[in-house]
């Protein structure tokens, strides 16, 4: 019995050590669009590995120019292990209200046409093909996206951390005879990605504004170097349907 108890204690310690050495994976919360589809917003939040500090980041993207709205992204980190994640999220939400009201985003959330959690092992991480909205039989052209990882020069803050990875995003089947439309291709890697190691599709959010042009946002998980293991953060690329 003592041997069994000892083995159980060792197993518990090993499991605890494994959990303690895991990188942090930010939760994704799609906030929605402006009423005309001109802005897409999402939130990522979690507990930072190593420090244990709660953080919440909000991103507001102009869907026409694929650029951040002035004053964004909003990044909140509470450098206090006793602070709660809700506190960090509430602070980020309050700042975001000055950009676009939360109620407006919630009223125009759109459709999550595709979703791949980072824990999913059975999907193709670099391909996403969706029916843009739940209408059957479909009345919309399918939206098919491909993600490619490309090796690039390391950012200055990533020396000696291995090969840095950028990405190329393309859309297939946009028009007859057109094989692919290039949506984005990295030529360098921004420091904000924290030494990326790889990418995978997380979600596709679509929106059909009243009387306006339909839009979508491809949300991509970025796997990057973390303090205790690989971290996951989120970026998004908007487009017109």
Could you characterize what this model shows?
Helices cover 16% and strands 40% of the residues. The longest helix has 19 residues. The radius of gyration is 20 Å and the shape is globular. Strands 1, 2, 3, 4 and 5 form a 5-stranded antiparallel sheet that branches. It has a 4-stranded antiparallel sheet with strand order 6-11-12-13, with no helix packed on it. The chain starts with a helix and ends with a strand. By secondary structure, it is an alpha+beta fold. It has one domain. A hairpin with a 4-residue loop joins strand 3 and strand 4. The protein contains 3 helices and 13 strands, in the order H-E-E-E-E-E-H-H-E-E-E-E-E-E-E-E.
Q: Average the pLDDT over all residues and give the rounded result.
A: 89
Q: Which ranges are low-confidence, i.e. pLDDT below 50, for 5 or more consecutive residues?
A: 1-20
Shape: globular
Q: Based on DSSP secondary structure assignment, what is the total number of beta strands?
A: 13
Q: Which percent range describes the beta-strand content?
A: 35-45%
Query: Secondary-structure element sequence?
Result: HEEEEEHHEEEEEEEE
Indicate how many domains the architecture comprises.
Answer: 1
Distance between the ends: 65 Å
Helix content: 10-25%
Question: What Rg, in angstroms, do the CA atoms define?
Answer: 20 Å
Major sheet characteristics:
5 strands, antiparallel
* Number of discrete helical segments: 3
Q: What is the structural class? A: alpha+beta
